[in-house]
Amino acid sequence: MSGKKLTDALKGFDRDHFYTPTEALGIVKTVAKSGFDESVDVAVRLGVDPRKADQMVRGTVALPAGTGKDVRVAVFAAGEAAAEAREAGADLVGTDDLAAQVEAGKFDFDVAIATPDMMPLVGRLGRALGPRGLMPNPKTGTVTPDVAKAVEEFKGGKVEYRTDRYGNVHVPIGKISFEVDALKANLAAVLDEIQRAKPASAKGRYLRKISVSPTMGPSEPKFALNAARTFSPLACRKGKATCGNLLTFTSLSW
């Protein structure tokens, strides 16, 4: 978003005011002006050091209202497991042939799942799958002998999350066409899961900033949420770096 649309979007709320999540999600819907059904994303800044292995936050969460998109699933499996994956609705199923497609640069899928016995094959695709966030991993439930269940879960609204190099987590929570209550339910599920996944070694404030925005909406920090259980106005005075320069939630009370 740029130019007049961005200017108009920024006029839709008070940058120095603190909003509830319900109000903020409502405003997110009003500033989406792209003309298509944009995704709504949440970005969470965590108080972790992603350089330390024991502070890497990663996992999956089932969105109660779904993602609003048709998730394409590829499954590396053979024999009976491959048949079960196809029956569950997997878009691509294979072994060496599927690996050849990946090596050729064909990534016609959003999620990759593999049975444990396929990991020696899939491991060789790490350089291709890893940077795209598609590498199967036991921690996210994408390396499993029960591929049928995994396919159904990801088709039904299960999404992956992980911290990036700066300690941020980005998760889609639905579409602009969703009702506010549906977006709220998905947002609550994501925040609950991230709270549950807090590393024991993380010190200090865990949820530093939480932002929601439409795909084509105002850029980071978008709509910031003060995730502290008690809010201190001193932490967000005008001009302070800790004060989001867009829309701010008051707390985790909905």
Report on the structure:
The protein has 254 residues and is an alpha/beta fold. It folds into two domains: 3-67 and 159-249, Ribosomal protein L1/L10, rRNA-binding domain (Ribulose 1,5 Bisphosphate Carboxylase/Oxygenase); 73-155, Rossmann fold, CATH 3.40.50. It is 28% helix and 21% strand. The chain has eight helices and eleven strands. It has helices at 3-10, 21-31, 79-88, 96-103, 119-123, 126-129, 147-155, 180-196; strands spanning 18-19, 39-46, 58-62, 73-76, 92-94, 111-114, 158-162, 168-175, 207-214, 223-225, 247-249. The strands form three sheets. The chain has a six-stranded mixed beta sheet, with helices on one face. Strands 5-4-6 form a three-stranded parallel beta sheet, with helices on both faces. Helix 3 links the parallel strand 4 and strand 5 (92-94). The protein is globular, with a radius of gyration of 20 Å. Mean pLDDT is 80; it is low at 219-254.
